[in-house]
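Comment thread on ticket #2218

A.B. wrote:
> Attaching the input chain for the structure job we discussed in standup.
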Amino acid sequence: MTTNTETKLIGRQSIVYVLLGILVFGSIWGFFEATLGGFLNLIIFPNKGAIMGGIGMATMASALAIYKKPAMLPGIGIVAASFKWFNAWLLFVPLNSIQVINPAMAIIFESLAFSLLAVFVMKKMAKNALVGVGAGAAAGFIGAIAWVYFAIYVMNAPAYARVVFTAGGYISNQAVAQAAFFGIFAPLGYLAGMKLATKTFPALSRRSLYYATSAAIICFCWGISAIAIMAGL
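C.D. wrote:
> Ran it. Output below, let me know if you need it in another format.
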């Protein structure tokens, strides 16, 4: 009886541990989207989507290296995508507008693509950086293809874009750039995650400290992101 109770307690703690990881890493990705991404969009920086997606890839790869759970990556993407709701909450943009839906779906497609690939290559990524390069590049390319067809045929994005684009043109240009950035950031993020797992996370082995640190990171990311968006980013 005691053994069963302890097993259930450990299981519940593990679930909380993973859920907090999803919230923390998703919030970090969303923070960069709201701050750096907002700035790059403001100055119309080229390949902004590929750069920000690459940072998101590094964030997911770090989480993968620490938790070893590909299934948590779509959750990280959903949390990061929810930062796009700030435009609705703070700037009164409709929730179903293209300015909210399109970037949010780009993040979700990227996280889904990497999650599916990570199921097959996660163990190999720790041993061979080239596997991480290939997985990141493939996820970037697949995510971009999924997004452009969604943007064109579901959201009619060309009618709102600064420059009218086609699926073929986007894939041959932006999807290739995204694949390149993802291929660079994926192994770097995985390496950073492995270092965090061996140095930082042992120090957070106490549940109270882990919960407090996680809450602080989440609050910081959401709070600063809200301020950045209200400031015009």
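A.B. wrote:
> Thanks. Noting for the ticket: The two ends are 56 Å apart (CA to CA).
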